[in-house]
Amino acid sequence: MTLLPFYPTLLPGLNLQALANVFNVQHYSAISKAVGRLKGLMRENKKVKLQFEMLECALMSEVKI
Fold first, then answer.
1. What is the secondary structure of 3-64 as a DSSP string?
2. Are the beta carbons of 23 and 9 closer than 8 angstroms?
3. Which end of the chain, N or C, is less surrounded by CB atoms within 10 Å?
4. Is residue 1 in some structural domain?
5. Which of 61, 23, 59, 47 is nearest to 35 (CA)?
6. 15 closest CA partner among 2, 4, 24, 28
């Protein structure tokens, strides 16, 4: 159950600039770079991918829709 890129799925309707504002980041490109780096790490390292998926599952189980 990997949601990549994960930010539109967990925070629907938010663009990169809106996410930068949410996370108090100066420029929206930092969000894009972080997502790209995380994707690369998950491709290279299965343990990182598993940890991300576990975190994602835990977060999604807390979401009440």
1. -SSHHHHHSTT--HHHHHHHTT-S-THHHHHHHHHHHHHHHH-HHHHHHHHHHHHHHHHH--
2. no
3. C
4. no
5. 23
6. 28
In a domain, 51, yes or no: yes
Q: Per-residue confidence at 60, pLDDT binned at 50, 70, 90? A: confident
Give the burial string for 24-52 (b: 16+ CB within 10 Å, else e).
Answer: eeeeeeebeeebeebbeebeeeeeebeeb
Give domain status of residue 15, yes or no: yes
Specify the pLDDT at position 25. 92
Sign of CA dihedral 46, 36, 6, 20: positive
Percent of the chain surpassing pLDDT 90: 38
Q: Which residue has the tokens 């829709």?
A: 65
